């Protein structure tokens, strides 16, 4: 075990997998000489050279498409976007090619591709740099979508993603890069896709979250404990595949659920989870499933309004009170 | 297919391919009219010398990709008419198990890496296959086909820009048939010479009218050699003409009967036939044509008799490996 920051855990996963497998390479804007816009790729150019750590011009659709093509014929690219917000420029490539080529070709082609980038809100970077994009992609069969909260999970899941034969999208909360945690050194350590983790045991309510919202949920749970409310926190880690079993098990224990996520509520992943809970554990529920999400507006620049729009611990607590009929 | 001889044997074999594509599509059109084939059906009739000439300039291990107008290239690369026809019929014996349809022919064995429905979206993907060849130190070449309609879209420019910047072994082939759906060239491009776009990227270029299948082969062979030996991309614009509407649902009212008749007189396939007949190959031509007719009849029977894919194909073609939950 070593204590690593989240960004270092992401880097360690890439370095180990690139050492292990010659077919893995990294491409993106500023990943090489500049050492990464968020310094995630620091030192990688020196280590692997410009054949495998490739600076691309501002051509999101171009280098995404190229990576799909390279993956189709046997390489295993890792693509970094400066933020997931800019992946919208490559949405056609991800949706219409990466996700669909296997089926369109009758199973002849596989696309072993990892797309990764910072995601979600940061601090006052305005509406075009702040959105949590996992909701757009979790909708799409053919893609896998991961959103870890802890450095160890970031490393283990990214290693799994690089070894996976499908297109996998890896969401790194921009605000988590500095978070520290114990991370296994074992190069064979991986976290399987589609398995949630219980980061806090509790009995009164299940808070289901991923990425940065897990940390906000931990904060909320500490507050709730002072009121004598015991919250269990389920960190999904993976949104597609989704660990229904762990969600249902937790709700069966607590009988109440609040889903907490960044991103808009309308048609978001929270709505999917609420649907699954009512479908699979209806008889266990003592209250409707509620969601604590980003408000249904583009992200404002103003600091105070920004904090109002992003879900805070207080919004999770409010919703917990409502499912406990305490407000 | 790769020996660059100009003998009549080669010409006859290329004629055979062109004739096979023509007859395949004429029969596909008939089956479409009988509602045996669904969806869109974009015919390549008139443009056959390009796919066939290009395939003759390539090695079997080179990669190709094209648009939804993909039957010609797939057959030229060696896809069996059976697999092609069965795909049109949506049968499990089709090249893409009946899941792709007319616009999405794939044949990995022949390195035909697909027909794509989004105009221009496949161009960077083809560049990616060239990237992979260079990354691995192989001398394979990629060739990507698209219409002049794709020249306005961003992915064309991003693909060209990166291929030139990274010096990748690819040939961009614009099949300029002068119409993007119903819009004539004069209303799609401010500069009608598509090959000029190469200048902005410092890329080699070529431009010619498709007049003879061997000429297409020879001119593309130059670009292929540049890709194979120097790892340099080339943009090639080939002027051509499609004799049918954009798709089966398009009567093509945006062009005059006279224009169409004029262009049909210059049918390159017919020109090959006349030339070969004049050289005394009448018997060989008739034998080839008989053989192809039998092949197409067999393909149709095969397609009609083949089973449909069942729902069990859906999951394994959506994800590689098990997909937990
Ligand atoms: C991005 C995109 N926009 C629009 C369409 C609809 N569309 C299909 S084919 C076509 C015309 C394309 O013409 P061209 O590229 O010249 O190819 P051709 O059909 O002549 O071979 C259009 C507009 C599409 N498939 N994709």
TrEMBL record, chain A:
Keywords attached to this entry: Oxidoreductase, Pyruvate, Thiamine pyrophosphate
Entry's EC annotation: 1.2.4.1
InterPro entries: THDP-binding (IPR029061), Transketo_C/PFOR_II (IPR009014), Transketolase-like_Pyr-bd (IPR005475), Transketolase_C (IPR033248)
Cofactor(s) the record lists: thiamine diphosphate
One Pfam family of this chain: Transket_pyr
Gene Ontology MF, one: pyruvate dehydrogenase (acetyl-transferring) activity
Main enzyme class: oxidoreductase
NCBIfam families linked: PRK09212.1, PRK11892.1
Name by which UniProt lists this protein: Pyruvate dehydrogenase complex E1 component subunit beta
UniProt organism field: Sorangium atrum
UniProtKB/TrEMBL annotation, chain B:
Stored CDD domains: TPP_E1_PDC_ADC_BCADC
Required cofactor(s): thiamine diphosphate
Enzyme class label: oxidoreductase
UniProt keyword annotation of Oxidoreductase present: yes
Dehydrogenase E1 component domain segment(s): 16-311
Region entry Disordered, spans: 302-325
Signal sequence residues: none
Catalytic activity, EC: 1.2.4.1
Catalyses which reaction(s): N(6)-[(R)-lipoyl]-L-lysyl-[protein] + pyruvate + H(+) = N(6)-[(R)-S(8)-acetyldihydrolipoyl]-L-lysyl-[protein] + CO2
InterPro entries xrefs: DH_E1, PDH_E1_Alpha_Subunit, Pyrv_DH_E1_asu_subgrp-y, THDP-binding
Keyword Oxidoreductase: yes
Record keywords: Oxidoreductase, Pyruvate, Thiamine pyrophosphate
Pfam name, any one: E1_dh
Role summary: The pyruvate dehydrogenase complex catalyzes the overall conversion of pyruvate to acetyl-CoA and CO(2).
Subunit structure of this chain's protein: Heterodimer of an alpha and a beta chain.
Protein name: Pyruvate dehydrogenase E1 component subunit alpha
Gene: pdhA
